[in-house]
Write a structure and sequence with these properties.
This protein is mainly α. The protein is about 60% helix and about 0% strand.
Length: about 70
């Protein structure tokens, strides 16, 4: 029956999407993850201190930002 085939196809796709992605991360992937992380923590004063003065693996140099 066609309905059973459709259900089987959907279950197969679900199994495929459950597998972890084994591709290596590209620099673009890492940069996107860093932006997302920074946006989530942007309101934290501890994160801003770490970002401005802490040890960081990013290529940008730290910048001191004074409140206006």
């Amino acid at each position: 029956m066609e309905l059973e085939r459709i259900i089987a196809d959907i279950e197969e796709l679900e199994g495929i999407f459950d597998l972890s992605d084994t591709r290596p991360l590209t620099p673009k992937d890492v940069a996107a993850a860093n932006r997302t992380h920074d946006k989530k923590l942007s309101n934290s004063p501890w994160f801003r201190l770490w970002q401005d003065f802490g040890v960081c693996c990013r290529t940008e140099s730290p910048v001191f930002r004074q409140p206006e």
